[in-house]
Design a protein that fits this description.
- 2 copies of one chain form a homodimer.
- Helix content of chain A is 34%, strand content 23%.
- Chain A is α+β, with helices and mostly antiparallel strands.
- Chain A folds into 2 domains: 148 residues, 2-Layer Sandwich (60s Ribosomal Protein L30, Chain: A); 170 residues, PurM-like C-terminal domain (Phosphoribosyl-aminoimidazole Synthetase, Chain A, domain 2).
- In chain A, strands 1, 2, 3, 4, 5, 6 and 7 form a 7-stranded mixed sheet that branches. Chain A has a 7-stranded mixed sheet with strand order 9-11-8-12-10-13-14, sandwiched between helices.
- In chain A, strand 1 and strand 2 form a beta hairpin.
- Chain A is globular, with a radius of gyration of 21 Å.
- The mean pLDDT of chain A is 93.
- Chains A and B meet through helix 1, helix 2, strand 3, strand 4 and helix 4 of A and helix 1, helix 2, strand 3, strand 4 and helix 4 of B.
- Chains A, B: It catalyses: thiamine phosphate + ATP = thiamine diphosphate + ADP.
Amino acid sequence: MNTRTELDSLGEIALIDRINRAFGQTSQPETVRGIGDDAAVIDTGGPDYLLLSTDMLLEGVHFDLAYTPLKHLGFKAVAVNVSDIAAMNGIPLQITVSVALSNRFSVEAVEELYEGIKAACEAYQVDLIGGDTTSSRSGLVISVTVTGRVERDKITYRNTAQPNDVICVTGDLGAAFCGLQLLEREKQVFLADPTMQPEISEDRSYVLERQLRPSARTDIVYELRDLGIVPTAMIDVSDGLASELIHICTQSKTGAVIFDENLPIDDVTYLAATELNISPITAALNGGEDYELLFTIRPQEFEKLKNHARITPIGYLTDKPESILLATKAGQYTQIKAQGWKHF
Amino acid sequence: MNTRTELDSLGEIALIDRINRAFGQTSQPETVRGIGDDAAVIDTGGPDYLLLSTDMLLEGVHFDLAYTPLKHLGFKAVAVNVSDIAAMNGIPLQITVSVALSNRFSVEAVEELYEGIKAACEAYQVDLIGGDTTSSRSGLVISVTVTGRVERDKITYRNTAQPNDVICVTGDLGAAFCGLQLLEREKQVFLADPTMQPEISEDRSYVLERQLRPSARTDIVYELRDLGIVPTAMIDVSDGLASELIHICTQSKTGAVIFDENLPIDDVTYLAATELNISPITAALNGGEDYELLFTIRPQEFEKLKNHARITPIGYLTDKPESILLATKAGQYTQIKAQGWKHF
């Protein structure tokens, strides 16, 4: 082969697009939906659809063991996968977990990791049904696959939203990003002078927990069921609200307007962002790793969850594709851009 | 935590046992079988059971890019997973593939890897339905999850064999191991003197192909169907015949006798083993990575495949658990031990 194209010059998103195009159409009648949503959808002939999603986490890329307790890491590896099932309006069933580790880990360390995995299995009521433990020449690698089920008439994709739908988000945003920035700051201080003790005040624990041990919003899936609401589209907030909203709009061929004053941001996130000299709005829009659910509902459904404590309406969809706008209180509109571009 | 137990002191098998015990019983009614067989078994309420298996391959542990073409590696990563579905007497349906790679890989190299993945998807008629491509700080990591289906009355576990069952194996054994030894030998020669050209004669290509681009025996699953045979137990030969036979015997609480003169060994494997100063019988028993199927059938079924070209009867099961014997032509019996112990 004569040409060599550097991965950096292409970028991760373009590479994935190129691979996906190469695989084209699926051929098995059981495959309802392949690549392109939070989880794949399989029709096994049973009453519900089966959902399948997978995520691989690598040391030094997705987590830093300098400040990540192994128990939290095990929990998080499961939770981020369960979150993909919730994003399809589904209930998780089972997971497989493959772990690669080097001999710098002790048996006790490995057991801590699995304790976290077990805690997540109990929290989300999923069975561990497979996977393996193998050696690694370098860092820790955790690969989790999750299954779930969803009634056929309740499945929620990314590409089925419609103009005028109300955009809602669960919980609050930007906390996980601020938590990460605090942890990174303390790590740099420690590296510069190992005699320094970490200095994160206790009242910042909320943002640290959001980063280190996020929750998947399966509770919302059950609540939407109780309220009789099937969202018109849904996605989980892993890369940041901006990036996820763009996914829904692009795939559904709609535009959007969201209001900055409506973005749910916790007080601790405000304080941490201010301390870090970050705009709380930027943290909420582009921070990522909150694992909240972003979804859209028909306007006539809005009454049902208008005063819901953990669901916030933040805007609405429009019939102007590519116009994805952030509106300020002062009446200014700016185009929202995704900051999720990753380099190799 | 005050104690530190080294992983080496415990070993991989003991660690996995310890983890599995910690997870204990499964709780979802959909989970028919969790950890402990080639694939997990899920009852989705459809006519068939759904099968799920996963495998993670790491550079420097499971493959060496010094002599592994990326296209073959992509194919192999899928084939070894499909093999786990075949071992349950199932038909593969879909795969997810997660790949982590560093920027020392070019876009062309990544495309080669995915070409091999695609070739395997076509060979085994499976859909690629998910996964992702992410960056790695060190080596290449490939994690594949495969789904499959099997009719409820045809599922084949490891723990359901009975005394007097005939032990059969597909294809031939030991080739993949001899291929690996040849490749390793040439690598050492090259490292010692980079001006030396590799010297593997062309008539050894069979054992190289068996190592670099193994096949999953889905063909046998279809043939057993046509013959009207449901094996009493089945497992794929990934760690070596000895290790797999011990799994069937231990889990089914039987003993076994196999005959060394019956072990199917290809002529090229004999030649390569002789060249490498390895006993061909040892290669067949302990080599691993052949991805053939080892299965047992009721004695009365034996007539149906007595003269089958790609299935060889190698012995029978006994009612003496823990007595797993290799019989020589001279009438000597030796206890078979697994060599599959791996250190961290």
